[in-house]
Design a protein that fits this description.
heterodimer, A: mainly alpha, 2 domains, two-stranded antiparallel sheet, 14 helices, 2 strands, globular, B: alpha/beta, 6-stranded mixed beta sheet, 4-stranded antiparallel beta sheet, 37% helix
Chain lengths: 324, 255
Amino acid sequence: MHRLLSPNLRWLRWTAGALLLALFPVFVREPYYITLAVNLAITLILTLSLNFVVGTSGQWSFAHAAFFGMGAYVPGVLASRFGLDGWLGLPLSVALTSVLATVVGLPIVRLRGYYLAVCTLALGFLAEIIVRQAVDLTGGGYGIQQIPPLFIAGYRLHGGSYYLLAVAALLASSLLLDNLKGSTLGHAIVASRDNPIAAASCGINVGRVKLTAFVISAALAALAGWVHTFYYLALNPSLLASDLTFLWYFMVFIGGLGSVPGVVIGTALLSVAPEFLGMATHNQVLAFGLLMLGVALFAPRGIGGALTGLLQTGRLLAAERSAK
Amino acid sequence: MTEPMLRVEQLTKRFGGLLAVDCISFDVGEGEICAVIGPNGAGKTTLFNIIAGEGKPDAGRVRLQDENLTGFADYDVARRGIGRAFQLVHLFESMSVAENVLLGAEDHRQLRMMSAATHLCGHRRRLEIARAQADEALALVGINHLAGRPIGSLSFGQQRLVGAARALASRPRLLLLDEPAAGLSRGELEVLRAAILRVRSRPTSILIVEHNVEFVLSLSDRAIVMNFGRKIAEGSPDEIRHSEAVIEAYLGRKH
């Protein structure tokens, strides 16, 4: 019975969630909050895809900002320099970033742990240097301004309407990751992380599966980059800075590596709280550091892990009470 | 005579100066249980690893029915019909028993990205087929009652059985069991024996590497004895029990 009901309930949950998120600009019209919400949607795509490659697939990738930056720059450069429509930039951005991730990933997914981390970190630095040096194309350190915006049937997407686009991108990414979890490929990704030898004995090509997970996460980062470009209509090379990757790692760790609700809470907390608290950047770094220390000491599995633990304890206590 | 299920021909593997497997040849027939025994360091595990695609031989061939599998990667060997249960179990620790066995049943030959991303394109049908195969493997090994349990909550013997069920879930033509009896209690040994005999009732051939000679001879149709990388005897369990060469390999020469 449970199995018969669950797929319908799942769609109901997704639809309800989408409607709730879509209603946000109806009640909140201040541009400041819309920008905050668009930023949060973009960051969630990034942290959820980072959580996927690190938590689900077990690959320590530090090139996430590079893929985000490429996803942002490709459509931005094409639109501002060559007049290409922003919508056409989306498939191009995702496809080109996926090709880059495949080319880079082919040799490096064979690496493990620290070696993979160091290689992807180097890629991140390299990407930023290339963007800063290719002045003719990328505008170098100044970046690109006045990128043509996106239009739907003659209507320019901005503010609340752009927020809907950002939420659609977030929902599509989350749905993709959630679907993957229940698929043969998703099972193979977790199996390849847990025990590569056993995975191979089940007929899983571990290298190919790991590469696929790496490329999926890069493609989602590129999608986030595309959303970013056509909201701000400006680009600068700090988008590729590895500091951003570390910030997203903070969000994932504080939320709880591998726990999707935890990562959502961690991301929301670290993106929105500093804005409301009016924190300066250097205070933010200090606060995040202290928060990270607190999580490491008192909740090593992050907020998500701690919440799961509390829920389990609650259920056990309730079961004991009803047994009495 | 019908073609054997597995044919190993003059297989040789060297590690530097050490000849770990020295020109070994044997066949395993369809539905046959064949044991490979021998003292420590005889080369049994190396032989097993080469058949399973974990390492290439220096010479010789491995054939599964009409297909030459020599030098194939481990995942490719598994896809072509050789299932393997490990001595060190090698289970997926973050998953339940049912999920472990389901992974063995699923078809991993293609990535099927669209199906994975959308849950369309035959996703549900394929998952149902895999679930049915996994349930069948759990029943065959006799551990359906453990299906929902996390791996960490199982005894070592139960974990062994999960490893065997996972290997069987893909419906392999040949099942490799690496030291299945090691570390099991007397009760668990009996459960294992019953499971192996049930598997034999299907057209699945089984090759077992085992230290517990009495246990493995009691359920095998034929045994191969190795020492110092060479095959020193081959025959029925009775012939092996009385073979001078085997007694000498295990107990030493009479004076």
